[in-house]
Design a protein that fits this description.
The structure holds two protein chains of two kinds. Chain A has eight helices and no strands. Chain B is mainly alpha-helical. Classes of the chains: A mainly alpha, B mainly alpha. The interface between A and B is large, with 42 and 32 residues.
């Protein structure tokens, strides 16, 4: 697919970043921040830590952009950087002194308080369900169901076979369904269908 | 379409959080990006500085080429063309013997 002027391809953005283009860096960061966050969350299981690691990894990626030999595969290169940062953070087991991110949510926009509360409740349920999974299962289910990656890409990124990736996904979905319960899952599935 | 998929989209960071994080990342990477800009700018600044020496070197090379061409192209001036053996500094009699393709007289070898 040819990227438009407003939506330049990764290769173009990376070439511009190598020349110090701040606007290109801004676009690339916004494009991949959700993915970086998802991977960090999968490895760490904590939103606050995921936020820190995701930022650290993106800064590192911008600093080391010359090392990205295949700009068209930037997402996979970034995924590895995020995973490494997340694992290091996990090893260090840093103790946070600030409040958990769940406690510092942005105030909802006026008139959307109910909707925001519902979303927050749903998010908390999903995070609790994700906590029941192993880090590998979390990575597989998040990359598949949230990022829409195929098993081939997931397997290559996390270093397992495609068969194992499918297996992890099957188990992870089962555990999450069980953790979410039929009621939450029903609401959630309906929300998904309507959303 | 995967019907078993669980909708995990509520986990995605809110747009405000993405905005905040993106700003934080760019602020931290600003030094690196500025450095890259400066490096690129300095390369472009250096080029004009090299323009005069490069032109002078090119002029000298062109002049030398003309001189060399005139020296090795004497045909244009109707001069005798030196043979390979002459250019290599081989004595005249030996050169003539080599070019004649005839067996050499041992006596003449002693004379040389």
């Amino acid at each position: 697919m040819q990227a438009g002027r407003e939506d330049p391809a990764d290769e173009e953005l990376i070439a511009r970043i190598r020349g110090g283009d701040v606007a290109a860096a801004d676009l690339l960061v916004r494009r991949y921040l959700p993915l970086a966050y998802t991977i960090a969350l999968a490895v760490l299981g904590s939103r606050m830590d995921a936020d820190d690691v995701c930022q650290d990894a993106l800064v590192r990626a911008l600093e080391k952009i010359d090392d990205c030999r295949s700009p068209s595969r930037f997402r996979f290169w970034l995924a590895q950087i995020v995973r490494n940062h997340a694992r290091n953070a996990l090893d260090r087991r840093r103790v946070r002194s600030g409040p958990a991110l769940e406690d510092v949510e942005e105030p909802p926009a006026p008139g959307h308080a109910g909707e925001a509360a519902e979303r927050r409740e749903l998010r908390a349920a999903l995070l609790a369900a994700l906590e029941q999974l192993t880090p590998v299962q979390r990575e597989v289910v998040l990359l598949k169901d949230l990022e829409g990656w195929d098993h081939r890409a997931i397997a290559a990124t996390i270093g397992v076979s495609e068969v194992m990736s499918r297996q992890h996904l099957f188990v992870a979905r089962g555990v999450m369904r069980e953790a979410l319960g039929p009621e939450a899952l029903r609401d959630h599935t309906e929300g998904h269908r309507h959303g | 379409m995967d019907d078993d998929r669980i909708d995990l989209s509520p986990i995605r960071p809110d747009p405000e959080r993405v905005e905040r994080s993106a700003r934080a990342v760019l602020a931290r990477a600003r030094g690196t990006l500025d450095g890259r800009q400066r490096m690129r700018a300095s390369v472009w600044r250096e080029l004009p500085a090299w323009e005069r020496p490069l032109l002078a070197a090119a002029a000298i090379a062109a002049l030398l080429s003309i001189v060399v061409l005139l020296r090795v192209h004497p045909l244009a001036r109707g001069e005798h063309v030196a043979s390979l053996s002459e250019r290599a500094g081989v004595p005249g009699p030996i050169a003539r013997w080599v070019e004649s393709d005839q067996p050499v007289d041992p006596m003449s070898l002693l004379e040389w």
